[in-house]
Amino acid sequence: MSKVALVVGGGRSLGEYLSKHLAGEGYDVAVVDINYDNASKVSKEIIETTNKKSIAISADATNEQQVKDMVNKVVEELGRIDVLVYNAGVAKSSKITEFQLDTFNWIVNVNLTGYFLCAREVSRVMIDQGIEGSIIQINSKSGKVGSKHNTGYSAAKFAGVGLTQSLALDLAEHNIRVNSMMLGNLLDSDMFESLLPQYAVKLGIKESEVKQVYIDKVPLKRGCAFKDVADVITFYASENAHYLTGQSVNITGGQVMH
């Protein structure tokens, strides 16, 4: 039986890339997205271009029952879960004096609570089936250093590091590894594109100048590419990383080094 990867937030942008990448690495892939059309499109393309199985599921990662139903469906249709990639995330940029509570709660729910729920339900399956699996959170350098005008996002991502370390301790006795990927700026992602107007205001520059400002901050002088993330995830999901757990792995081109 093929190993199975579950990608939450797998219907577009980085999530789409990771879903297809994992299929190329030999995994059957469950593509989960709040937008079913996006998940279905990615899943169909995996089936058409690889010899791997794939299913599409619509689920809100912040809804406990939907997460339980999602995990049950993956097990029913694909048999097991070896890797969870939690890629669901949202961000909205605003100065703290203007930051709305409902926006803060929304950001924390998607970036943190959804990760908790998915990791909990997947770990139950892994333990029940005796699978020495891998749980990977897509995090951000904003989980290592504060981010101006991004209080909600940075707070949730810092909390994600603590959750990852705690999960790693809880699950070590089952040989289930849990790690966070601390990404640099994904300049070509849908999320970064959506933030360009807000970042232009924050920096006091034109929208067309924003990406270059972020490139200039990176010692390797480029943004974080989807492939950069996928290459590291391939390793951390594999048995080659069997002695690595509870880690917050910088994929930042040297911009963050701690």
Automatic annotation (TrEMBL):
Presence of the UniProt keyword Lyase in the record: no
InterPro entries: NAD(P)-bd_dom_sf, Sc_DH/Rdtase_CS, SDR, SDR_fam
Alphabetical GO biological process terms: bile acid metabolic process
Any one Gene Ontology molecular-function term assigned to this protein's record: oxidoreductase activity
Top-level lineage group: Bacteria
Keywords of this entry: Lipid metabolism, Oxidoreductase, Steroid metabolism
Database matches in SUPFAM superfamilies: NAD(P)-binding Rossmann-fold domains
NCBIfam families in the cross-refs: PRK12384.1
Annotated family: Belongs to the short-chain dehydrogenases/reductases (SDR) family.
PANTHER family in UniProt: 3-OXOACYL-(ACYL-CARRIER-PROTEIN) REDUCTASE, 3-OXOACYL-[ACYL-CARRIER-PROTEIN] REDUCTASE FABG
Protein name listed in UniProt: Sorbitol 6-phosphate dehydrogenase
Organism: Clostridium polyendosporum
Upper taxonomic lineage: Bacteria, Bacillati, Bacillota, Clostridia, Eubacteriales
Name of the coding gene: srlD_1
